[in-house]
Write a structure and sequence with these properties.
alpha/beta, Rossmann fold, 6-stranded parallel β-sheet, 50% helix, binds FE(4)-NI(1)-S(4) cluster, binds iron/sulfur cluster
Length: 627
Amino acid sequence: MEEKVLSIDSATNELIKKAKEDGVETIFDRKENMKPCPMGEKGICCRICAMGPCRITPKTPRGLCGATADVIVSRNFARMVAGGAAAHSDHGRDIAHVLHMASKDGNYKVTDEVKLMELAKRWKIETEDRDVYDIAHEVAEFALNEFGKPFGTLEFPPSLPEQREKVWKDLNVVPRSIDREVVTIMHSTHVGCTADADSMLNISMRTAISDGWGGSYIATELSDILFGTPVPRETEANLGVLEENQVNIILHGHEPSLSEMIVLAAEDPELLALAKEVGADGINLAGMCCTANEVTMRHGVKIAGNFAQQELAILTGAVEAVIVDVQCIFPALAPLADCYHTKFITTSPKARITGATHIEFDEEKALESAKQIVKEAIFNFKNRKKEKVFIPQTKSHAVVGYSTKAIINQLDKVVNSHIDIAGTVKPLADCITSGVLRGAAGIVGCNNPKVKHDYGHIEMIKELIKNDVIVVTTGCAAQAAAKAGLLSKDARKLAGKGLATVCELVDIPPVLHMGSCVDISRILELVGLVAKHLNVDISELPVVGAAPEWMSEKAVSIGTYVVASGIDTWLGVAPPVTGGPRVLEILTSEMENMVGAKFFVEPDPVKAAHQMIERIEQKRKGLEEKF
Ligand code: XCC
Ligand code: SF4
């Protein structure tokens, strides 16, 4: 029988083969045997109360309480949004707590003072003659209040165009406070509450907006204040970044409060000496999933791989420890690590996993905590079994670290090289209105074994840049792009003439790495600033979004706030809503009348890219009439 090729990434395929030889299973094997429940796939199974579970069939068109397919589907969808928004926003809250404990002599410090002052000014916090840390603590407290303030509405950042805010006011989807919106969904989806698909989706939008323009936005801004706003730097990506003769540590998860300290610990002379003592040449950190994005953006830490590769890292037999915090961590890592010498270390009380070694990360003693964790990895080096080691020789060069500020400065430097002013988005806006760049696309999201690994991301990105659409990317999509060499400046040879010229002139790759998934707030910021500069609404810009291989609830929240922000969004995997005709109609059609954008579902990434380009050209026409 011919072997199915499961990834477009050779390192991944080689390690899938090794898994067979080693007699261990991975997600790719489990996928073969898993038959998704057809009810769940359509979203028409309700488990909200114990009279059920109820499932909708031609013979039972309503649940016991009378809920229709659309009611059930819309509630299930809303709960996905709530789960995703909660995860992103709780991440933001944790970072706010860390800023609140930052001090001059502590482990956590203020790194980007300019950004701190901007935020203080925006939130009307007194800055004159005050200690930086007093300001930081007040900024943190203000941010924390955004999660649960009893009155008023969310403080929007200045990048939000007023036209957009008006759309939201008219639809009554302006969030009150972040936690409150998540709670409202949990309440409204309780048995005997919302039984109206339109209203349920409206509530979902409000919660999603509180994530994108609230919790995620706060996570990004406060992370930049604490750990620095990213600037372009070089790195390498794929499992080939693991080192034969070093202590290899995989950093996996999401929150930079942990990974930043691990980075510091790994540079500690004492620990480096310890590594030498156990016979290693050094300590090699490599990132996975969004933690990889966080630490590569700020330190150039190499990228081991994306979501679908987490087991494969252990399979190399060369990883001393996988250190995780929260989100996107396979429970499968625990039994798998037992088959190798790898230590699987959980650190967060929010994500304990049976079979893992749990060393709780204590932010109060952050560096000490991090050192203890790194030591575990170093001591484990001696247990590595040479005969089990196989590191694929695949890695690609990449440029990462394009925060909004970095993009603005990069463009401005070239166009206004003689003027010493703070950067503006004018050059970028000019490139778009003149048509040198046809438009921009944000390609984001996960891996999902329903799609050949990385295929959805890479085929879509290539098609877009070939057609002069500049791509910005975050999350596991960004890592796919890095591994495929699309984040290297060389990749401009794959771009159309207009985009290639801009890339050469400005010295950027055609695909810009903007960070982790909470950093989609950077994309919102950039798009919002361009819209404001042109005095149009976001929905008028030739800008599109896509999640070709999405899988998480966070992605559902993201998709919903991106569409609610006026950006058409393509999904490569259908969400579990197809059993609700009204829900489907709203998401894929009627939302356009409400927010000026909608969802598209298209599994073929090249076809999707062409639909995206078509929409971009339509938007261009509208803009041309204006200018
Ligand atoms: Fe997770 Fe953020 Fe998805 Fe990757 S892209 S699989 S959510 S790590 Ni966010
Ligand atoms: Fe069934 Fe209604 Fe209970 Fe859902 S809420 S399980 S549809 S009775």
